[in-house]
Structures are given as C-alpha cells and as structure tokens.
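Our collaborator T.R. sent over the components below with a one-line note: 'Predict the complex.' Nothing else. No constraints on interfaces, no templates requested, no preferences about which chain binds where. So this is a plain run: every listed entity goes in together, and whatever single assembly comes back becomes the starting point for the next discussion.
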Amino acid sequence: MKELIGFEIKKLLRQKLIIYSVIALLALNIFNIVQDNHQYLWGRDVSYNKASYEVYKKVSGRLDKDKISWLSENQQNLSYLISANLKIPDEYKNWGCTHHELSQIFTEHLSEIERIYSYNSYIKDLMSKNGDSIEASKNAGNNYLVKVNEKIASTYENREISAYYDTDRFSAYLDYGFSSFVVLLIILLAVSSVFSGENESGMKELHYSTKKGRTELSIAKIAAVSVFITFICLLFSFSDFVTFKTVLRLQGYSAPVYSMSAYTDTPLQISIGAFVITAELVKMIGFIFIGLIICFMSSVMKKSFIVFSAGLVFSIGLMLLSAYSNMYLDYVNLINPINLITVSVMFKQFKVINIMGYPVFNHTLTLCCCLFGMLSFAMFIIATNNKNSRKTKKKGGLISAGFKS
Amino acid sequence: MQVLKAELHKLFIKRFFLIAVVVLIIVEGLTTFSAIRKSIVLDGPSLQVYKTYINKYSGEITDEKKTEIDSLISSYQSVFDEIEKLNEDYAKDNISIEDYNEQIEKISGYTDAMEGFNAFERAYNTALSTDNPLVDVNAWNCLFTGDSIDIFLILVLILLVISLVIHDEETGINVLKFSTKNGKKDIYFKQLFIVIITSFLLSILVSLTKFLTAKFTYGLNCYDAPIRCFEAFTFSSSEAGVMKTLIVISLLKAAGGVMLSLVAMAMGCLTRTSLYTAFGTICSVYLPGYIFMESKLKYFVPLPSSLLMSEGYFKPEIIGETIASGEDYLFVMNSKVYFELGIFTFLILMVFAGLIVFTYIKLARRKSI
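Returned assembly:
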C-alpha cells in the first residue's frame, strides 16, 4: 500500500505544468500580499509608519502605569504645543515625522489601550447581565436558554487583556483570502484528473485487471490526494506567514485571540499563535474535503475538463451558500467545507446550534460534520470505483477497452 | 466552404455544443430572473402601485408632474392621519370594534399599497435631491453586474475552444488532418474564424437574454435616462443614456469574450490538453480582478478580464479619500481621459489578440510540417 501511495503522489508531482502553476501562483500570492500591504514597507506613509512603529516598540508588551503615563503625557504636551502654536522641542523632532503626525500616533496608541481597558469592563458587564439572564430563564422554565447562558458564562468568565500588542495586523493576515482561492484552483487542476485522467488515457481497464487495482488503488489515490493537498496548504500557509511577518512585522503571538478587535466575541480562549496554527489546520481539513468531493466527481465523470468545470461551479455555489444564513441554511452550512476555509469568519462570533436541547458550538459541529462528510466521500469514491470495475468486467474487461485477448 | 461546414457540424452537432448553448441561455435567463426577484423587496399590490406610479411619472420631473405627485403624497398622508385617528379613537373607546373594522376595510386598498407608494416617494425624493430624472432602476440595476464575471459564459467559451481545436490535438486527429490537402492549407483560419464569430455572437446572445428576461419579467423603461441615475454609476459624469451604455458595454464584453477564446486557443496550442487550457484561461480571467480588487487598474490590465468587466470604464472617477490626497491620479481623472485610457487598453488588447492569432497559426503550421 505504501508503495502504491508513493507512486500516486509521484504521479501528481511529476506533472510539470502543475509544478509550474504552483510556483507561478506562489510568486503571485507573495506579490499580492506585498502590494496589498505595501504602505507598511514603502509609499507615502513610510515616515508615519516608522514613527508609529518606534512608539509601538516602546509601549507594547505588558501594560503598566509608566508606559501609559509616558504616552498620555507626550500626547497632551504635543497637543498643547500645537494648539498654542509654540516652539516644538527637539525631542519631538527626532521621530522622523511631523509633530501633527506624532500627536496623531500618540492618540492612536492611547485609544487602542483604552479599547483594551474597556474590553475588561465590557466582559464584567456581560457576566453580570448573563447572571440575570440565567435567573430569568430559570424562572421562565426555558432549560435550553439556561444552558446557552451557562455556556456564555463558562466561555467568557475570567477574560482579561493585560498586554498591548498591535493585534489588528494579525486580523489582516487571518482574513487574507487570495491564497485560499489560489489553493482551490491548484486542487481543481491536480485532482480533476485523478480518476478521469485514467479513463481518458485508457489506463482504467488496465488497473481493473490488476490485483490491487480496485479498493487498494482507490485508497491509495485518496491518500495521495490528501497528502498533496496537505503539502500545498502547508506551502501556501508558510509563504503567507513569512510574507505577512516580514511586511506587517507581526508581534504578540502570546496575546489572547480576543485581544484582536475583530475577535472580541470569539468563543476561543487560546493565544493568537495557537489560533494561527488551529486556523491553518482547520483550513487544511476544508481543502481536503473539497479535494475529495472533486475526486468523487472525477470517479463519476469521464473527462477531466468537465470535472474541472463542475468543480469550479460547485465551489462557487458553496461560496454563495456560505454567504447566506437563515434557520435552514445554518444546518446545511454545517457540511459546507467553505466554512472551514474561511475559518476566521467562523470563529469571530459566539454561535451555538440547538442539538436535542443542548447548545453545541457551531464551529465544533461544522468540523465534526465535515470530517464525517470527508469519510463519506472517501467511501463513495471507493464504492464508485468498485462499481465501475464490476461494470467493465461485465462488458468484457480489457477486450472492451480495445485490448486483444 | 465545405471545410467550414464540416467544422461547424463537428462543433454544434457531433460535440453537442448546441446543447451547451441552449443550457447557457436557460441558465442566464434564470439567474437574471432570480437576481431581479431578489433585488425587489415589494410584492403583490405594493409592487403594482409602485410600478403604476413610477411608469406614469418617469422621466424629467416637470412642474406639472411635481404638483401631481405632491398632491398624491398629501392624499396618502391624509390616509395615514386617518388611520392614526382611528387607532386613537379605538384606544379611547370612542368607536366600536365594528365601526373600526368597517373604516379600516374602506381604506385597506390604500394600506396594502402603502409600502409601494413609500418606495415611489423615496425614488421621487432621491430624483429631486440629485436633480436626476425619475427612473425605475430595479431591473436595470440587475443588468449592470459590476465587477462580477459571468462564470457560465466563460466555461461555455472554453468548451467552444476545447471542442473545436484542442479535442483534435488531444485525440491525435490533427495528425490525420495534416495529411490532407485542406488540413495543411487553411483549416486553422477557418477554425479561428468560427471561434471569433461564435464567441462574439454567444456573448451578445447572453447580453440579449439578460435584457429580454428583464424586459419581459419585470419591464424596462426610460431608455434615455442618464446612467448616473443607476446605483453602479451614481457619481459618473457621463451623460450617455442607459440603453446606449448597455449596448456599448455588451459590445465591449463581446470583444472580451473573443479575447478570452483567443487566449484559450493560445493556451491550448501551448499545453495541448483541455484541463490545462481551462485552468490557464480561468486564471487569466479571475486572478487580475482578485489582485487589483481595490484598484481601478483591473479595468486596464491587457487581459480578457478587463473587457469582461467593462462597466468599470463608465464608473465614477471620484473616490472621497483619494481625491483628498490627490496622489492616486488614476482615480481623479476626468471622464474624457478615462475614456481615452479605455480605448488605449482596447487597442493594446487588439494588438495582443493579433499576436495570439499569429502565434497560434505559427504553432499549428509548425506541427503540420
């Protein structure tokens, strides 16, 4: 089996055009990240960004009174000097930007720190309101609502942000979607021909006549596709991370994920670093699921081009489906792999689904459903391949494919 | 002529391309219909009232129309007041439930239509404040699809090239063709001719299907209304009428369709497989739009995608922030320069298309030797 898997992987990687496409798209992806965030590296805001980063370096990390008073004193001082039209001292001229810009930089950092403090009070407020809600739900006899409120309490209690990092840069990295689109295109290109390619070249009948040409070959192909997708995902995740780290100078991996302004309501309690790894793993599962769906299409359809087109239309359909939400679609979307690929969206909100009176996290359920879907599609592929093999045998096996007996 | 006929027969009958065209038209009709249905929040009597008034008063708002609409608004307002008074009386027990129901029954025609009339009033107020003619924009807005590229048309155009040209390469029929007299001579020109004409006609057919679906399922009017009345072109300085603009956009998109087929042909010649042809063509269409998503550069990239998103040539040239900074000059050009840049891109594209044709013939001939 190992040999078979190795051979199937080799077959995928031996196609020069796939390799060229991966290299070209990888370069395009890096170019896209740089041109999207170029203002942090060069451009008209370069002096501003440089000064902002210098100030940030001074105040980032664990928050203490000294840092905050340094920021507020400087901000007040500078604002006063500007409004009174007084001479600006030399200490403010060494930052490399205008004093108006410097004042704005101090204000921006102060307002971010203010947001952190307001988050802590927001959580305290939420907890006290939630306690009232639990009581009210108990009085109304609504057991489900009681359980939801208890889940909220267990998720959000003891939350506190004690360090200041410019975590919004992580949001830009986590919300970046171009690489996912590119990976999807590569998967479509590589996986479309996994089974249908054999059919086009007339190798299918030959495979069916061999000892390991049915179930074992199907399993080997599924494993090879999964390994290939994992490799592509890792490659693009790595390039995304390295490019973003270089361009945006990402910092604060140990900060909690809810310290990012877009993730304040996330149900996750992990650090940003752990979330980055989780997000990439979840994304990978989503891509493998899509890969298996295309693999299934490839085992059903005869032409690779038709599989590619059907896969593309299907993927666009899934994207549209994941964008809509209502009572019924929420259940359908549990098995939508696109939700795993746009992982940052899934983890931004506290969302539970009622399963037999128990509130279950939407992301847990989606992950379970997609894993189940993956297994189901793997079984479908094996079953379809075995069925095709039986059909070919009935028709006369190799003779029907033009081989002389 | 016989070669041309044989190629057409091969494409439309033998390779079932005719079925693909029929399916494409049905899909385009259905998607346009569903887009119109989704964009209109009104239904039943409300929609009827809205359409009646907007059709009656559409066009430039003259003093006469203004007086009539104002009196209509005040009559509807009086119904509002009447309902409010009835509710108040009923709450204070001044009238019985029977009388209340009777009165409400009398004005129920108005209440059913209230939502429709409110929508008409909003459209009227917007037209007045922006100094534009009064137009029913609902169906027109769905015809201008913005930056989205029609995936079904793209796939059918790729299928056209694959069925006509690349299939022969893949199956090895080309070798057989090269051994014949006509196969060596001018079959490439005829295939090229079929691809160009069919993709142009197909793109026009798609635009026509969308237009006719909108016209017969909802109804279109105000063909001369300036495009700034419509959502996609709100700040455009162009004075062109909506119908004229739609025709120009459809022609540009058809040119984009031809360009796309030529790119697919060139890809096919280079890769000789349908899968890679489809992949390469899809990349050339979707990636520029994705990379330059926030920038107007996507309309001027010398690839089929720019022509397939040709609505961008008519879009406004002001964007608040960039105007203030005054640095991003692409956004602050006046419409004349903008149009000239559009023509320049078009010319580059045509030169590019010529190069593709030349390369295609060169490659095809080389194989024949």
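Summary for T.R.: Chain B has a mean pLDDT of 77.
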